Amino acid sequence: QKEVEQNSGPLSVPEGAIASLNCTYSDRGSQSFFWYRQYSGKSPELIMSIYSNGDKEDGRFTAQLNKASQYVSLLIRDSQPSDSATYLCAVRADRGSTLGRLYFGRGTQLTVWP
Amino acid sequence: DTEVTQTPKHLVMGMTNKKSLKCEQHMGHRAMYWYKQKAKKPPELMFVYSYEKLSINESVPSRFSPECPNSSLLNLHLHALQPEDSALYLCASRAAGAANEQYFGPGTRLTVT
C-alpha cells in the first residue's frame, strides 16, 4: 500500500505570510509528485509538479522535493485570501503497469485571513 | 489547452433510474480516469482507461459501468445507485508517457434520492 501523508490542518496564516504545506510518501521508488489546489465544491486544479530533487518555483509557489527523506513540500509566498483552499499532495506510481495512477494525501485546508 | 469537460454539472437521480455521466477531452490524451470524491476526502480512483481499454477497475460495484467509445470520450453509466453513492464524480486525463500531468474536469455533483 502506497501511503501519502500530509501535515494535519487546518492551517491558518495571515495575508502576506508564507504558508508551508508538507507531505511524506512511503514508496521510495516514486518519481513524480504533484500539488493540486481544490476550492470548496470544485475539482482539483494542478498547480505544481516536481520530478527532481531540489526546488521548483512558479510565481508565488515553490515546490521542494527530497527523495532521500521521501518528503515534498509546497511553499506559498505572500499568501492571499484567494489561496484559501484544500491542497492535495499526489504521488504517482511510476513502476509496473500502474498507468500513472495517483496516490493522494488527505489534503491540508489552508485559510489566509486578511 | 488542458481542458477536460464533464456533463452534466449536477445530477439528481432516484435509486431506480439509469443515467450517464460524460467526459470529453481533445488534448490527445490516451489515459483517462474516473474518480469519486466525498466531502473532505481525497479523490478515490474508480477506473482507468488506457488507449480505450479498461485497464484498472478498483473493485467498483457493477452499478457503475464505464465505457470509452473513442479516444476523446469517457462515459460512466449509472444504474440502481444507492444514496451513499452521492458524491462528486471527477474525470481526468493524462498524456501517455512519463513525466506527464493528470488534469481533472470540473466534475459532476451526483445526488441519489
Largest sheet data of chain A = 6 strands, mixed
Largest sheet of chain B: 7 strands, mixed
Q: Please write the string of helix (H) and strand (E) elements of chain B.
A: EEEEEEEEEEE
Question: Uncertain segments of chain B of ≥5 residues (pLDDT<50)?
Answer: none
List segments of chain A where confidence is low: pLDDT < 50 over at least 5 consecutive residues.
Answer: none
Percent range for helical residues of chain B?
under 10%
User: Please, what is the oligomeric state?
Assistant: heterodimer
Residue fraction in strands of chain A: over 45%
List keywords for this structure.
heterodimer, A: 114 residues, mainly beta, 5-stranded antiparallel β-sheet, 11 strands, 0% helix, B: 113 residues, 4-stranded antiparallel β-sheet
Short structural summary:
The complex is a heterodimer of chains A (114) and B (113). Chain A is 0% helix and 54% strand. Chain A has 114 residues and is mainly β.
Structural summary, described in words:
The complex is a heterodimer of chains A (114) and B (113). Chain A is globular and about 45 Å long. Chain A has strands at residues 4-6, 11-14, 19-25, 32-38, 45-50, 54-58, 61-66, 71-76, 85-92, 102-104, 108-113. Chain A is an all-beta fold and 114 residues long. Helix content of chain A is 0%, strand content 54%. Chain B is globular, with a radius of gyration of 13 Å. The A-B interface holds A 31-32, 34, 36, 41-46, 49, 51, 88, 92, 94, 97, 99-102, 104-107 and B 2, 31, 33, 40-43, 45, 48, 50, 55-56, 88, 90, 94, 98-107, 109.
